[in-house]
Amino acid sequence: MTKPTITTALLCSLLSMPLLAQPQADSPEAMVAEARSLVKSFGGSLKQALQAAIKEGGLTNGIGVCKTVAPEIASNNSSGGWVISRTSLKVRNPENTPTDWQEIQLLAMDRQPVKNGKPVEVWQVSEASGQPAFQYMSAIPTQKLCLGCHGKSIAPEVKAKLAELYPEDKATGFSEGDLRGAFVVTRDVPVN
Ligand code: HEC
């Protein structure tokens, strides 16, 4: 029973945390678990909202969900220092442009978006900005549902609406299974 204690102590001292205060809350494992659950909840809500909007008013109606509801759902799922967003190698909205680190991860994910039946994920704890920051990414493979707005043949009215809202749109031409992008979850690691 000594081994786990040593590992925990090591992890805690690595993160310069007091051992007794919330022993595991800020361990990389705990943060990855939290990031996964945020992605699950954000991804699930977004897909539901998208499906409902398309059912109600077609793809052009769905565009509105991606434009306004996606950031809303993202901010509802972001709290306590946690922030969730989406990025891609080919963005529709330039605000979703990846950072250098994110771009490197996306390039690797692009070669293999799914491993053992699960979207590829990656994380790091970086001190590049002076403040230790946890960052997690999870690949988003293209599904059938996405093709109407991100695929190779897009209906003229959808194309027109996208061109109006996103003059710099690069997010078309995808096939099912291609990497569409990634969820990004970040959090500042508290320094004690
Ligand atoms: C009804 C049209 C529509 C459908 C269907 C759709 N999207 Fe999008 N998608 C958009 C729009 C519009 C944006 C830009 C949102 C914004 O302004 O942030 C977008 C943005 C994204 C982004 C953020 C990166 C970027 O390109 O700016 C990702 C990732 C993404 N979509 C993935 C998907 C996936 C995965 C699916 C299928 C499950 C999907 N989309 C289905 C319209 C759609």
Descriptive account of the structure:
By secondary structure, the chain is of the alpha+beta class. The chain has one domain: Beta-Lactamase (2-Layer Sandwich), CATH 3.30.450. 46% of the residues lie in helices and 18% in strands. The protein has five helices and six strands, in the order H-H-E-H-E-E-E-E-H-H-E. It has helices at residues 2-14, 28-76, 100-111, 147-150, 156-165, and strands at residues 82-87, 114-115, 118-119, 121-126, 133-141, 179-188. Strands 1-6-5-4 form a four-stranded antiparallel β-sheet, sandwiched between helices. A two-stranded antiparallel sheet has the order 2-3. Strand 4 and strand 5 (133-141) form a beta hairpin. The longest helix is centred in the first third of the chain and has 49 residues, at 28-76. Heme C binds next to helix 2, helix 4 and strand 6.
Question: Which helices and strands occur, and which strands form pairs?
Answer:
Layout: H1 2-14, H2 28-76, E1 82-87, H3 100-111, E2 114-115, E3 118-119, E4 121-126, E5 133-141, H4 147-150, H5 156-165, E6 179-188
Antiparallel strand pairs: 1-6, 2-3, 4-5, 5-6
